[in-house]
Write a structure and sequence with these properties.
Layout (H helix, E strand, L loop, with lengths): L3 E8 L3 H16 L4 E9 L3 H11 L3 E3 L2 H6 L5 E4 L6 H10 L3 E5 L6 H14 L3 E4 L21 E5 L3 E6 L5 E6 L10 E4 L20 H18 L7 H20 L12 H9 L1
Parallel strand pairs: 1-2, 1-4, 2-3, 4-5, 5-6
Antiparallel strand pairs: 7-8, 8-9, 9-10
Helix pairs in contact: 4-5
Bound molecules: nicotinamide-adenine-dinucleotide.
Length: 278
């Protein structure tokens, strides 16, 4: 099937720029959407910085003025990941140029500004979205609550039970049910990235939480550093051999029902080969 290509122009490229670039790149890996993003261009103000960011995050081109991005006819969607005081001007200009708009939260600085933005996208008939990638019921400033890093939490309490969630533990939901037997009542931990939950089936099989994918990025970073320095990172094939020795001993033990003494591999390959062939 021919996928519709949505050519994205992203304004800003720091914290949220990194998160959005990653999401635009990875989306087709997980979701079979009919429209797919193309990382067409980013805009910043500093030429060296924006060029470096474009290269690093996989964008095809870059501009030093967001207005130029909006003028381009090879851009379908403007992603706004700049500070809040810039959202309104960029979003309204993007809508007026007929671009779809996705904007970081909060949408604007004031209700009046937000209404102008809404008016602009409605008039243009473009698709619009605010990046509430999670929505919270409680406001808490972690910068003034010491010890909390991204301590964004919600808790909902009702007649029949309660649920609570914490951003720093985002794969888990705490659930309390009043109908539980007295004496056994209490919060239970539910893994909310099991395949039965919304969106979760697109990612990993049961038990493989969100974040699992990042372990592969860490691994590949080690491999790339290894190629640069010429030193194989650990675990490498030496460790693989030690692992294999244990696995083989397990098989032998299963067959014989006996303890197996492990041959020791100390890193001297010729001597180990000779020893194990004896
Ligand atoms: N959804 C979330 O989870 C989440 C998390 C953090 C921040 N945010 C929101 O994302 C937005 C950006 O925050 P951030 O933390 O990424 O900020 P940041 O300071 O890390 O990045 C802002 C970027 O905008 C660029 N920029 C600023 N003014 C510009 C201009 N006039 N033209 C072009 N580029 C300009 C900066 O150079 C930088 O690249 C804010 O609206 C913030 O509230 C959302």
């Amino acid at each position: 099937m021919n996928k519709k290509q949505v050519r994205v122009g992203m304004v800003g490229y720091k914290f949220m720029g990194k998160a959005h670039s990653h999401a635009f790149r990875d989306l087709p890996f997980y979701f079979d959407t009919e429209a797919v993003p193309v990382l067409q261009a980013i805009a910043g103000r500093d030429a060296a910085g924006v060029r470096e960011a474009a290269e690093k995050m996989g964008w095809a081109s870059w501009e030093t003025d967001w207005r130029r991005l909006i003028e381009r006819d090879d851009i379908d969607l403007i992603a706004i990941v700049t500070p809040n005081n810039t959202h309104a001007e960029i979003a309204i200009a993007a809508a007026q140029a007929g671009k779809h708009v996705i904007c970081e939260k909060p949408l604007a600085l004031t209700v009046g500004q937000a209404l102008h933005m809404l008016e602009a996208v409605k008039k243009a008939g473009v698709v619009h979205m605010v990046c509430h990638n999670y929505r919270l019921g409680v406001f808490e400033a972690t910068r003034s609550s010491r010890g909390n890093r991204a301590g964004n939490r919600f808790e909902i309490n009702g007649e029949k039970g309660s649920i609570r969630w914490d951003m720093e533990n985002l794969n888990h939901l705490q659930v309390y049910l009043e109908e539980d037997e007295p004496g056994l009542q209490g919060f239970r931990t539910i893994s909310c990235t099991e395949v039965e939950h919304p969106f979760a089936a697109a990612y990993w099989p049961a038990g493989h939480i969100i974040g699992y994918e990042h372990t592969f990025i860490n691994l590949l970073a080690e491999m790339m550093n290894g190629i640069s320095t010429g030193v194989s990172p650990s675990p490498n094939f030496e460790d693989g051999v030690r692992n294999q020795i244990v696995l083989e001993a397990v098989e032998q033990s299963v067959q014989t029902g006996q303890w197996v003494k492990l041959p020791e591999y100390t890193g001297n390959l010729p001597s180990f080969k000779e020893q194990s062939m004896r």
